[in-house]
């Protein structure tokens, strides 16, 4: 019998407390980027391909529960236990705006056109902030039936999705009317809800199962019972033939989308896995854990050289990206004051 090769992940250190959310940007002219949210109150930005640390966004005074990047990876957003959602310049790390809430913000999401920020949290209110008029009061969508755990946009920003911490199901809201148009029923609360890159599926993790829903007609397409309690799931974006799930047993499992058969089981974290996400090209995926680390795993088989490189990178800890790489990223975004941006990028 052929011996199974052990996957060696790239280990990204830097957070001092559990990592609770991960988000990959789409592929930009300068590559793609990975942002992480942690209970240490400091979201971090990394090169999505290498895991190299680019900068840390400093300013929150409580655990950060959610993070995201806009379509061009020019701005970042984060939702925190300090009752704020913040918008950041993803090149310099500067705080652009802070949106006050009356309770913990658990989730945030940029609209596809990047003009709006959607937030939800313990207040049970979904808010839409106009980023072109950040000082204007937000639009409030009808109250959620429970404390909001996840939010997302779909249908070209015409529909928003939300799940609750203490109630099962996913609610789909019509943005124009502010009313619930559909509820996707689950037995337990949904801890992770992702819209597939092609817009076809909504992927949910509800503890005991991972479900795939038709994002346009809202029917249940597939449901797979998980071997352990899972907190997060993500669908491979390029071919849509694999998905990953992670949870309480500290392992990240790779499954066949069509059959539900387990293809691989990656071990390495030393605490429950809170979040898993596929990179935008599907060549790798990241996991964030209670142990405070992010691990980036290759989807395909690794060569010996790849393993050596990953192992070496994994031991370097918080890696500051090379100066020329930062300047290349900045030049790509046509920043006017390149000198200033270059100085600040490392301390973002």
How do you describe this structure in short?
The protein has 348 residues and is mainly beta. 9% of the residues lie in helices and 47% in strands.
Helix content: under 10%
Radius of gyration: 19 Å
Query: What is the H/E order?
Result: EEEEEEEEEEEEEEEEEEEEEEEEEEEHHH
Number of helices: 3
Oligomer: single chain
Strand-helix topology:
Elements: E1 10-12, E2 19-24, E3 33-38, E4 44-47, E5 53-56, E6 64-69, E7 75-80, E8 84-89, E9 95-100, E10 105-110, E11 116-121, E12 126-130, E13 139-141, E14 148-154, E15 159-164, E16 168-174, E17 179-189, E18 192-195, E19 201-205, E20 207-214, E21 220-235, E22 242-247, E23 252-256, E24 262-266, E25 273-278, E26 284-289, E27 294-298, H1 304-315, H2 323-332, H3 338-345
Antiparallel strand pairs: 1-27, 2-3, 3-4, 4-5, 6-7, 7-8, 8-9, 10-11, 11-12, 12-13, 14-15, 15-16, 16-17, 18-19, 19-20, 20-21, 21-22, 22-23, 23-24, 25-26, 26-27
Helix pairs in contact: 2-3
Describe this structure as you would to a colleague.
The chain is mostly beta strands and 348 residues long. 9% of the residues lie in helices and 47% in strands. It is built from three helices and 27 strands. The strands form six sheets. A seven-stranded antiparallel β-sheet has the order 18-19-20-21-22-23-24, with no helix packed on it. The protein has a four-stranded antiparallel β-sheet with strand order 1-27-26-25. It has a four-stranded antiparallel β-sheet with strand order 2-3-4-5, with no helix packed on it. β22 and β23 (252-256) form a beta hairpin. The longest helix has 12 residues, at 304-315. It is globular. The N and C termini lie far apart (50 Å).
């Amino acid at each position: 019998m052929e011996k199974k090769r052990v996957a060696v992940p790239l280990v990204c250190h830097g957070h001092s407390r559990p990592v609770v959310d991960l988000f990959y940007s789409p592929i930009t002219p300068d590559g793609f980027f990975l942002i992480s949210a942690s209970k240490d109150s400091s979201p971090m930005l990394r090169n999505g391909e290498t895991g190299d640390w680019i900068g840390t966004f400093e300013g929150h005074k409580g655990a950060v529960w959610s993070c995201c990047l806009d379509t061009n990876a020019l701005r970042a957003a984060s939702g925190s236990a300090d009752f704020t959602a913040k918008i950041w310049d993803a090149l310099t790390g500067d705080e652009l705006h802070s949106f006050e809430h009356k309770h913990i913000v658990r989730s945030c999401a940029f609209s596809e056109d990047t003009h709006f920020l959607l937030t939800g949290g313990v207040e049970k209110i979904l808010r839409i902030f106009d980023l072109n008029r950040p000082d204007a009061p937000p639009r409030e969508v009808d109250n959620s039936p429970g404390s909001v755990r996840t939010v997302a946009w779909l249908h070209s920003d015409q529909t928003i999705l939300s799940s609750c911490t203490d109630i099962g199901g996913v609610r789909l809201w019509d943005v124009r009317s502010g009313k619930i148009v559909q509820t996707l029923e689950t037995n337990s609360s949904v801890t992770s809800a992702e819209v597939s890159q092609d817009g076809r599926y909504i992927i949910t993790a509800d503890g005991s199962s991972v479900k795939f829903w038709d994002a346009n007609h809202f029917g249940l397409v597939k449901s797979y019972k998980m071997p352990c309690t899972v907190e997060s799931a993500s669908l491979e974006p390029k071919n849509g033939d694999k998905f990953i799930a992670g949870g309480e047993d500290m392992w990240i499992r790779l499954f066949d989308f069509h059959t539900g058969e387990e293809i691989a089981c990656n071990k390495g974290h030393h605490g429950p896995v809170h979040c898993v996400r596929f990179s935008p090209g599907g060549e790798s995926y990241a996991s964030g854990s209670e142990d405070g680390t992010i691990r980036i795993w290759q989807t395909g088989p690794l060569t010996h050289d790849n393993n050596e490189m990953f192992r070496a990178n994994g031991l370097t800890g918080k890696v500051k990206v090379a100066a020329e790489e930062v300047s290349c990223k900045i030049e790509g975004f046509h920043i006017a004051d390149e000198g200033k941006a270059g100085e600040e990028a490392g301390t973002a």
